[in-house]
Design goal:
- The chain is mostly helical.
- It has four helices and no strands.
- It folds into two domains: 59 residues; 68 residues.
- α1 packs antiparallel against α2.
Length: 136
């Protein structure tokens, strides 16, 4: 059964999550490399930009298989806007989850809150990329 076009939603979702995981690993790796050359805040900014480029390419060409377009500038602008909104959603979700603490030690709960916020953000990014950025 096909959902929302040519591909099953689940397949796109899995590819989207793998793309995000690869981008997150690259973010961590490049952050540590850039630390040898620049102060930590600049290293983080640069590694974040690398991760965003990986997410764009991975989602466009693999997760959603969006063909080339003559409106690449518009697509990139919408992608960046959606990604920045996703960052805000991630931070707000994290702040809310941290305050909910379910009786777990604060350090463990912070880590759980990071994972929960990533989940909320992944859902936002998936549907926004699918229906706003890489729609066919």
């Amino acid at each position: 059964m096909k959902i929302f076009g040519d591909e099953k939603l689940a397949g796109q979702g899995v590819r989207h999550l793998i793309t995000g995981a690869v981008a997150d690993l690259a973010d961590i790796g490049f952050f540590n490399i850039f630390l040898f050359f620049v102060p930590d805040i600049f290293a983080k900014a640069l590694s974040f930009l690398v991760a965003v480029c990986i997410k764009y390419a991975g989602n466009k060409y693999w997760a959603f298989k969006k063909p080339e377009t003559n409106e690449i500038k518009k697509e990139i602008i919408i992608f960046v806007i959606v990604t920045v909104v996703g960052l805000i959603i991630n931070l707000v979700s994290f702040a809310l989850f941290v305050r909910i603490n379910a009786g777990v030690g604060i350090n463990l709960w912070r880590q759980i809150s990071v994972i929960l916020a990533m989940g909320v953000t992944a859902i936002w990014n998936f549907f926004s990329y699918k229906f706003l950025v890489f729609k066919k």
